[in-house]
């Protein structure tokens, strides 16, 4: 099995992970690297590629600019370009994800091997994984790590208004991407049962039968108890300089400086318990910093509040707050605390899983942890600590004292944790369960074909132009005549395609009426059917491909009584397209209609165009997906493809690496969000003349040439088809 893992944001490398550097370099980055390594060690896995975004930025390590990093014989990290070179927070990546999909598809095409399975991590990777899986027909597995609806609820509870949340975190796009991912994924892997019930249960596409709990593993070679004769690690000196009585047991909190981690409440709980202050010191590892003033707002606020609380309660000499630590020192820090007879605490308001809990337990530390989220499963399985209400400071202090004051309790929890981690949370055990769960998914996969089902001469053309029909190509007879002449002059190096919502028979009538020869490719019914050449050869693979999860009767039943939706004429309907006239003054919003279909467990694409048309097509079908599939079969880079459109139905065709044009008469508000993208040209002329304007703008036929291969007898056994 060849497994392709996607983790797009954050700084990912195989060594010295910068955990806690910012909000995007948390436990997820370690999880995906460890999982990739564990799967790569299995005999029944041939290759694991962990794909992330390439970052070229003087503010970060040059490691993140390396296109390929080898982790082991069968495992590597691949870094692909997407958007600007510099490091971006995940909230700013959304407009660049379509290019990431296109770059990844091109990489896989060039290497000549497609994965058997895609596993996406977090919402942005889910967006990429869903589009790639729907394009090439590979099963998608998804791990959310954290979910937008849950985060949105927590932010609302914290006092932020919805508009502020959506603007700062791009939350609406994130949640929409998560819904699409859940509609596409054949398996969702979570770390805990709590995650399924409390987070995924908020989604319209919540399907419990697709959920599997597979707890992540721990590297038991790195995280192990201290030996009696081990020398003190160098980090001990860093801690001791903060403390008046460094021989006391240590209470360790290790996390990012994030308000959700609730570190300030821990400091207050410690300060308010004289017995706890007498018995133990507090060690807080909250990321790395040179100057608090240089940190982002969230981390700066948290660390400032910690320092203010220390000062307010005069905790100097009792609290250690080191400024720096490396990833390699983390295991030593746990062992230092275990050697002192201390405790590890995670007081977060909610914790999706809690990798640090496993690491601490693997070194023999008892645990105190939040009762909200993953720690419930971890402590339930291992019986190695106490759960607390993170809002109850008295309960936090009492739980810590329960363990610290009774050596027998400490020893019991320590031994239970060591045994429990080895039993439930080792990486070999995780990889074994993972492989057993995903194996059946790949049995139904059919490889994407490599060449079109027709004579190969068309394959040798090195570029292609695809245009929508109505109001894009058509509308100006003089412009159509000039356009057809242009394409005929360049037909030896360029394929020509029509991409339309019309049915095939309707398209042929319009082409004949306007004197347009049958093109090389006809993509009809909103990307659900593909025909090639003047002989109209049907792409049978694509028909089977888009039929995935398609239930037209169920769709019609779900929408039958919706006001403001009137079925279009039969000539506008097809096997894979259900079309309605949409009256926005009467009908529910498109978002509400999408939600209704999702709650009926219907995996579909809902396409809204010009404010008055609504089409439902299979989840794998769209104009953009069909264009990318065809160009793959032709072997044409998307950078050599010009697409023409102008409505919401065309958006996914125009995003990404294609060249695109919106002709003047179709500068529709549905595409206004694309105005700032570099590869989309808004023409000044209308209809076909606008396309000709774009051809000149892009110098699209520059160096138009015919490779020698086309002149060979085998490549051109019959005359060229008409344009």
From TrEMBL:
Enzyme's top EC category: transferase
Pfam family, one: S6PP
Keyword annotations of the record: Glycosyltransferase, Hydrolase, Transferase
Domain Sucrose phosphatase-like: 463-699
Chain ranges of the Glycosyl transferase family domain: 245-417
Entry's family note: Belongs to the glycosyltransferase 1 family.
Record protein name field: sucrose-phosphate synthase
